[in-house]
Predict the structure.
Amino acid sequence: MRILTVILLLLALACAHLAARDWNYINGPNGTYAYCGAHRSDGTVFLGTSGGLYVLDPGADTWRVMSNGLPHSWVASIAFGAPGVIVVAFEYPLALVYRSTNDGTTWQLIGDQQVLTRGLPSSFVPCRKALACDPESGDVAIGTTNGVYVLRNDSTEWDAISSLTATKDFYYVDRVLYFIGTYLLKYDAARGGSATDVGVVAAGTTMSTFAIAPDNAFVSFFWHPGGTSAMMRSTDRGLTWSDPSGALPDVVWWIAFVSADTIIAGHGINAPYRSNDGGASWIPANIAVDSGSTPIPLFAVAGPNIVVAYGGLAVSRSLDDGSSFHDVSDGLNARAARRIAGRIGGPLYIAYELGRLYRYNDTTGAFIAPDAKYVSLAVDDDATVYGVPLDGGAVYRSDDNGQRWAHVAGVPLFSNVDAIIAARGSVYVSTKTLTFPQVYHVWRTSNRGITWDSGVAVPTGPIYALAIDSLGYLYAGTDSATYRSTDTGRTFHLLNGSSHARALAVAPNNDVYAGWRGNVERLRDASTRWERAWTFPTNIDIKAIAVDTSGGVFVGSVRGGVSHSRDSGKTFTTTTDETVASGVWEFAIASNGTMYARTGTSGIVVYNPKPAEPEPPATERPLGIYPVPIVDHATIAFMLTSESPVRIDVHNVIGERVEILADRVFPAGRG
């Protein structure tokens, strides 16, 4: 009898690496608007901006953006709970509430304006500086335009505790929530019910701001109808108040504590004040940045770092108790974008933040129009750029790539522009009147805005999308129907079929695509009837469609990411990673045909598909070594759960490999 050792080897093929992302974020130009801030006890400063949540670590001079699935949209409020717990509320373009329990490594969505409301009204919008997280219980409280709500740590449903719609300055003390409406209110979760007024207030005054000092005293500013303010201090949690200071000539809307005795207070319009004696006396704060300027702070975040944010793009910091301030804006990049537009062979135009316009080439965004506040953009075939300002009441034109802009005259009824498109020498705009009943028109100019054809009324509601095919036919999409004009917008005819259209696009072969809710419709050969091209899940909302030079169809949606078809809409593949998970609202083609997308919360992303990396060579690893006595033959049975190929090697007792005939080898998993 020979003793042989059977070595069972699993021929394991290493998993192929995940394909690189097809959509990649474009880092916007330097500068972003700051709306709120918070100073953590470890010296870390958090800044809520129009482009997401930024962090300035202790000792650092450059901000880092907080990502890991957190949106890069407008932040309304920031709050801290127990160590490592951060809660962030976003107000635009979607109202969202996120919580992290591991210092921002991962984030959990706990409130969504459209999906995960969980007790919040679907129309809720967070109030600024109206968020708190209890460090003891983990409860989260938020003030919204619909009222005040609390999310218990052991619950997934928000509970209403107050109907007040304008609240701010939220704090938890010993599991009791304090915040202000007109006066100070509190909510004790242990007792339940609703929020109630706290104690005695100064007669004839209004509480304008509230904070808790480093010595745990309640501090608030009350202002009188005459416009003066006085700081009030309470050591019994708002039951009684004392007045340690003389009156300030301005209404005070924010307080920042450097220490219990050193306070900076301001309005956001006039220069701030400073007290070095706990509020007994006040002097001008005299905040001057190293450029020599003395901008007016919108708010200040104080502690070991004093970070001051201004109404524009500037942010400064002091490390010497406010004696000097230095610019600290590195790393704060524009992210939130309102519009994009482009043409093949030309640059991409991006209206960032509050309409600030940039021209983007390759990897840098060049600031081209500091006074331009355009929220709608269109680029004609001759590279002329057209823009609509924030109020939507006019159209402007630039003939030099956005360097200079001229008002386009002769448009008498431009009360509000919903959409604009330029192609083949014509510019079309869709408008609505501001008076009721509202009337919806489409206007056209063929001479660069010198004169405009009379507006044609479209009866079924706002026109959200416009498109022009190669024949010059104009398509107009509404929430109830789609129309086509074959005479340059003079008359419109209803197209048959089921298509509504929030998005329209024309392919190189002249097929027209329309998107609405979860449906993509296609119109072939300038026919009059739509056909269904594709149906997506019912919970998505299509906002954008584009077709590239090869006929590839891109569909962007809210809650559906980006879907891409390479076969004229017969099949789609969908991307929902964090670059596009917040939704895609607009596409634009620029440069050599590169596709760009404007996302809901991640800024501008570019389509740059990477080929999947080749699979690595197969590797072997032993699954087991089993001594088996063999005379002439033996049956060796194994039960495997792997689907990888299996090889059986046989060795003698001194380790020499022995050739052996295997009568039968079953596939893995069969034994």
In short: Residues 6-19, 662-671 have pLDDT under 50 and may be disordered. The radius of gyration is 31 Å.
